[in-house]
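Holo prediction — iron/sulfur cluster.
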Amino acid sequence: MAEIRDVPLIIKKAIWRIETARKIIQLLSFVLVSATIFGVGPWEVLLPIAYSLGTPHKTVGDAFTVLQRVLYEQAFPWLPIASFVLIAVVLGRSLCGWVCPFGFIQDLMAYVKKKPTEFSLRTHQSMLNVKYFILGVTLFVSVTLAVSLAMGVGQSYEAAIGIFAPAPFNALSPSDTLFAILPRIVLKVWFGVAVEGVLLSPLLWARFVILGVFLVLAAYVPRSWCRYACPHGALLAILNRFSFLGLKRDPVKCTKNGCRICVEVCPMKIRILELPWEKFTDPECIYCLKCVDECKTRAIRPKFP
Ligand code: SF4
Ligand code: SF4
């Protein structure tokens, strides 16, 4: 048990952790992306993070949402693609670990349960592909609709998919539900505006179910939405392999035979010890640096380039 004289040292150690810095940056980013309510922005900046289509207070744009909207307007989405490529090539998927508001909410949910639950490796590996499927379906709908509208034959297609037409993913995105739909309903109830009509919508309840499932799941399986379902994360995962930013592991310092702390603390379930030690840029790595923080022998370090 720790003695009284050790307390300052314990506090100092807790403060000087990368994880503390990360939480502060996540919180500041969370405030900053909605800071137009404080008179800041909006800025003409697109970031590959999951935020929301319907939030009027956002300072920065969410690149995947804008990508779908630009396709719907039958233009080529140069800017969102540039945002994904530039950020992923320089910083990999680190915005997922340090900036994304929905990632931050999931990290907070992970505090609910001290010991995370994990799927078996086989289930985990198969479920990683779900996010690529969601990305593929979203792009398929957006691109085919854009092409058919541009050819003047897409009106019935557009009418058939209804609310999914402008941004197919956002129509059910838990991030939109949490940051745009839910606050709007709460504000309406607060100011006595009738919401009965809104609450009858089956789509709204589908949204609530998806949000609820992934928030609860995040308490058990860290970053489950990011791992298995997020199409922003899927695009970044594809590009993450080419990232300048990576991690390296010193095999001499690494007490590989007995210690697997880095693997155990990794929220993305990355098999660090099986990756090349000179530099690894795993598609799923969000550069949270928990493995760096927890390694007792300081064997893992960020590497750039
Ligand atoms: S993968 Fe997670 S952190 Fe990255 S954009 Fe999606 S929700 Fe945000
Ligand atoms: S490998 Fe390290 S930096 Fe990457 S997600 Fe896992 S713990 Fe975070």
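READOUT: Residues 265-266, 268, 270, 272, 285-291 surround iron/sulfur cluster (ligand 2) (CB under 6 Å).
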